[in-house]
Amino acid sequence: MRKSLLLLSFALLPFIGSAQDDSKDANDVVVNKLEYNKWTLEFTAGQAKGTKPFTQGYYSSNPGTYFGSFTFNSFSLGTRYMFSPKFGLKADLSYDLFENNKKTLSKPFKLEQYRLGIQGVVNASRLFNIQDALGRLSLLIHAGVEIAQATPKLDVGPDFSVDGTDPNVGLSANYNRHELNGGVAFGISPEFRITKKLAIIGDFTTIANFRQHFAWDGHNSDDANNLSGQMIIASLGFTYSLGKEEIHGDWAILDENKLEELEELDKRIGDLETMMNDADKDGVPDYLDVENNSIAGVAVDTKGRMVDMNKNGIPDELEKYMADTFVDKGQISETIASANADMIKKLINEGYVTTYFDTGKTKPTNVSTEGIDFMLTYLRNNPSASIEIVGHADEVGKTAFNDKLSIDRANTVKNTLIKAGIPASRLSVISQGEDASVALDSAEARRLVRRVTFRVK
Description:
This protein starts with a helix and ends with a strand. The chain folds into two domains: 23-254, Porin, CATH 2.40.160; 353-457, CATH 3.30.1330.60. The chain has helices at residues 2-12, 124-127, 131-134, 256-275, 316-326, 332-349, 370-381, 399-419, 443-447; strands at residues 31-32, 39-52, 74-82, 87-99, 110-123, 137-152, 179-193, 198-211, 229-242, 252-253, 355-356, 387-393, 427-434, 451-456. Mean pLDDT is 78; it is low at 1-33 and 157-170. The strands form three sheets. It has an eight-stranded antiparallel β-barrel. The protein has a four-stranded mixed beta sheet with strand order 11-14-12-13. The chain has a two-stranded parallel ribbon with strand order 1-10. Helix 1 (2-12) packs antiparallel against helix 4 and helix 5 packs across helix 6 (332-349). Strand 12 (387-393), helix 8 (399-419) and strand 13 form a beta-alpha-beta unit. It has 457 residues and is α+β, with helices and mostly antiparallel strands. It has nine helices and 14 strands.
């Protein structure tokens, strides 16, 4: 039943709270969906520049231009997973190549670098709730850690000089030596959606290395002297959304109000299922049942009480069955009286007359005092009878406490009957202690063993 209601709620969700249709086609701004693609593949290419450190006489930018010349020397392939429409995590592997600008007077150098990055991602468009204003544009912010391996790749001899008059020791000492660097990265990535799954992405990232001995030109500092390395990357590429959903995850706007309504509906369905439990299987839900230990198959009223129109303590359906099946029609009154006595005694001794208690309590619950009323009527109608009052407890708590609790419950019932006029000599108390016959992890089952039962001697 619950699954059916949930499926119905999903079907009706677009109509809850608003008649407006938020769905749009592939080239519109947003698509309102409950599911979206969480995995994204990213590829970018651009220029990486080391800003510091450089050895004197080495540099990468062209001083004759305002922004320097542009060269594709950085390539990156990564994947991103969005835990929610606002927050995610990405990993990428990158390759950078640093070398001198041929249009400058820098001494020649060449250094390769491989980078592995792990970064958190924030969809700022969603975080600041500006996605409607941005339309097909989205803005991602990412930050995390980078590990890189740098390797000088140019073997320059010791007699090299730019103008022929300035001999300089070259890079041959560091050629093909590897160094591992580590640092932090921060970047901003504007993204423009082209199709439902494909988008163009730009990225500007700055990286600060806390451990670095090679300068970007391949020379190295002393091992005891860590350099403070910095670099910037500007790149352009594309992202492709992976998954069975039709919309790129960065634009799949979820209506949080509707999700909250769905969660509330799910909770209400769960509460309704609990209310509809029927422990004694009499067709009356427990929350309406004031006699939750009725005999299976016996007719009950709307409150779960076994029907007894003549108020003789025997359900009418049992009484009629006995009369129709076992009684001589000419002696029906005498036979019913005899059968009733045996039937009542059997019902009592088999635990159908019961008084229930809440956890840790010795006072009966309001709906279960009818068991005491039944025994009071029985003892008054059978003045020669005496009974045993048997106390029980569930397994929650220590055994010693539960043993005392069960005897206290039995004594509470005994004292109630004494105050109602039954002599104490006709009543005896027994403690059964813990009842381990039900599952300990079921609150509903434990409720059935927190009780007092009776036995006719």
